[in-house]
Amino acid sequence: MRWCWAQQAAPSPLILLLPLPAQPPPVYGSAEDYDYENFSYSSGLDENGYWEGVKALDYVTLPENFASLTFKRSEIEPTEEELQSEIDSLLSDHSTEKQVTDRAAADGDTVNIDYAGSVDGVAFSGGTYSGYSLTLGSGTFIDGFEDQIVGHTPGETFDVTVTFPEGYSDSTDSEGNTVVLSGKKAVFSVTLKLHQREGPARADRRVGGRELRRER
Questions:
Q1: Model pLDDT for residues 155-192, shown as the tens digit of each residue
Q2: Diameter over CA atoms, the chain
Q3: Cβ atoms within 10 A of the Cβ of 14, count?
Q4: CB–CB of 48/89 below 8 Å?
Q5: CB of 129 closer than 8 Å to CB of 115
Q6: For the whole model, what pTM was predicted?
């Protein structure tokens, strides 16, 4: 017997621990045959977000004084801020990434880049990387780096010029000689190989008692 949390529709909400009907053992297929594109988190749920064919009253006898139970609305009603926070969290958790090749990179996009940096024409350790996934506007790289990627398209190779902040740690060249980076101007040759953005995430459950039909 399996157990799940369910909510019985009634004048006042109660969270009840219900046994689910016995289910046949699952049949597993190969991962290659699974239809990931048509996967739905709502499988087995009705339009209100409840398990199809499962009713609390089929398993629970309510007390005679059920109708007399009272609840303060403020204790069971989420605020607008809490609802919006939960909605945003769900949309973020279930968002997808989509390859984009028909426009330039924009702030907030996730890009895949190769880069090779040098100071005074000397390549330094840690300044070269292939296939780095970077969200533009995240502030992951030093000031000015991400801003200079915006506006470029996949396949482009271009220079990004930045200045390392004062106090930045030294590096070394290919022969082990010290390369001072603090306060130095550096030039990075950047190739934008792949350019992605978050695709629309559709929430079709009930959250906080409200039906969600939001595109992002």
A1: 999 999 999 999 999 999 999 999 999 999 999 999 99
A2: 84
A3: 14
A4: no
A5: yes
A6: 0.51
